[in-house]
Structures are given as C-alpha cells and as structure tokens.
# Entry
Amino acid sequence: MKSHLYLGRMFGVPIGVNLWVGLVAVVLAVSLAEISLPNVAPGHPNSAYWFAGVVGVAGFLGSLVAHELGHSWVALRNDVRVLGITLWLFGGVAKLDGEADDPRAEFRIALAGPAMSALVAVLSGGAAWITWRFDGSDVLVGLLIWLAGINAVLAVSNLLPAFPLDGGRILRAVLWRRSGHRLGATRTAALWGQILAAAMALVSIWVIFSVAAWSGMWILALSLFLFVAARAEWASAAPAPEMLDMPVGRMRRQLPAPLPANASVADARDSLAANPGVPFVALSGDRNTTDSLVTRDSIARIPPAQQAVVPARSVAEPILALPRVDPQDPVREVVARLGGGHHWWALMADGDGTLAALLSSDVDGLLEVAAGG
Ligand SMILES: [Zn+2]
# Structure
C-alpha cells in the first residue's frame, strides 16, 4: 500500500503527505469545531465552527510545510539539495540529499525551521490582534490565536536539544565545530536525544495519571518515537567492530631517517619537505640514540634566514613526551588509551627499530569511514 500522497511542488521542492496525517487532521478539525472554537467564541451556527475548523487544519498543515520550507530554503542556499518534504504523524520532515559538510551550514539549516515557525506564530498573533482591533469575527480571532499557539509550540519543541530534533542538530553543529569531528558530535547529541526522550516518557506517565490521559499518551508516543530515532542515529554513528580490531600498524606513517645530533633547523625543514605526510622528524642524541624530535611548528617559529645557522637541537622536544604504541595494538585499544576526537601523535617502533608515527587524525578518519560518514 502506498503510504504517501503527493501534494505538489513549492519552490521546486516536492511535498507529500503520509496518510496517517488524515487521522490527525480529522481529530484536529473535530476538536476545533466542537470544543475549542465554541468555547472561545460562543453563539455562532455549527456550520461557522466547522468551516473555521477545516480552515484551521489547512493552516496547521501549512504551518508544518512552512517549517520544512524554512529548512529547505537554507539548505538550498548552502548547496545541500532537498529531495522532498513529507508531512506525517508527528510533523514534517525535509529530506536532504546528504548532509551539510560543515558545522556552520548544519547550524543554519537546523535553526531555519524553528525560526520560520516563530515567524508564522508572530504573524498569526499580529493578524489576530488586527482582527480583534477592527471588530472582526471572534471565531477568526480564536482561530488565529490557536494557529499562533501551534506555531509557537512547533518552534519551541523542535528546539529541544535531542537529536534528531532541530535542537539536537544545533547541539551537534556546536559540538562538531568545537571538536572538528562530526562523528563524535553525532554520538553525543544522539545520546542526549535518548536521555531527553526517556525523561519525556517519565513526564508523560505522570501526565497520564494526574493531568490528562490523552495528552499524556500523545507525549508518550512522541517520546518513544524520539527514543527510537535517537537510538538509531547513535548506533549508526558507531564504527564497525571489525575496523576497531585492525592493528594500528596499518595506519603508520614512516618517519624520515633521524637527523644527526649536529643538524640545523634547515636540515629538519628539508627532511620534512621531502616527507609531506609526517608531522615531525627524530633527532639523534649524543650517544647516537634518537632522543628528541623537531616538529613543523617549531621550525616555523625560526625566521627562514636563520634556519641554516640555528641548531635543530635548540627547538627539539624530548621524544619521551610522545605516547608509544605497538604496531600490533588494535585501534580500539589505542583509542581507549589516547582518546578519540583529541589531537595527539604517538610513536611506533618496528621490530628493526625504524620509527613511525601514528596520527590521531588518521585514526579519526578511519572511525568516520567505518561509520559510513
Ligand atoms: Zn525542523
């Protein structure tokens, strides 16, 4: 059975509706026409309430579309293609072709939906005020206030910091920008999504038994949906287990031959220029053992004109400061020991004593690939 109905295109974005939305529409129309509107604006014929109820449902669906169009418009401006918008039981979803590849774009796209809802809320509230001011229909005033309220709820509830809600995406973008790692940020944001969903479920049980059974059950259904969605995002951001068992030796970067004890900064610079993938070169000590290292940063601190006369030793750092890893260590163990998402270098010695480096960026890169990101 086809579960979606195609409505049409807006700004080139196809819009569809899940058939379950029909159920929500009927419930909303009945509650507006039979309960809410007769309460706030009594004394009108039934037909007036029903007409307003149907208009209200159309306004509600239009509000969902406006929210998703907000996301879509900003996504298109950030070169992320929008495949379509679908309205379903708990709101709308704008399906994007892939994800934003930088946290700033992600932040803007996520914020655009709630911002649009807030705008519609303000416009509806303003229209209600104008209608009231010029003695317009009290049914219309009630309807516009209801629409303003719905959009305010849409804006605020979507800002909850629970991935995959918009607020959770904003949280992820902030974490992503701070750490530089999309994967770790997704894990954290999706973990908060699960915690928040569990807290919501607890609140809903309290609501069911002490406030209103139906509202409580609606919140419970929402929190279950949110928990399942957050859990799925959390799991899909985890690296594949077999990648974690890989020995780190396969990711090593061979270091250039150690420089002699009397090498200059220029020698270190030339050595690193010939080995673009490595961050430092080892330096031999007095007794011909490598005891220190010279990094690209420390070379850059010496003015080029002086590099040939300044001894490399004067800018070297002790090699003992670097953590050591065994080429046979599995990725899982090294990440647990040195930390994922942090910047580090480790030193690796092969059986014959040649030195190699392991870079945190390579390990994180593997974790991203393993997670399909
Ligand atoms: Zn949204």
Summary: Residues 46-77 form the longest helix (32 residues). Residues 67, 71, 113, 158, 166 surround zinc ion (CB under 6 Å). The chain has two domains: 4-239, 243-370. The longest strand covers residues 4-10.
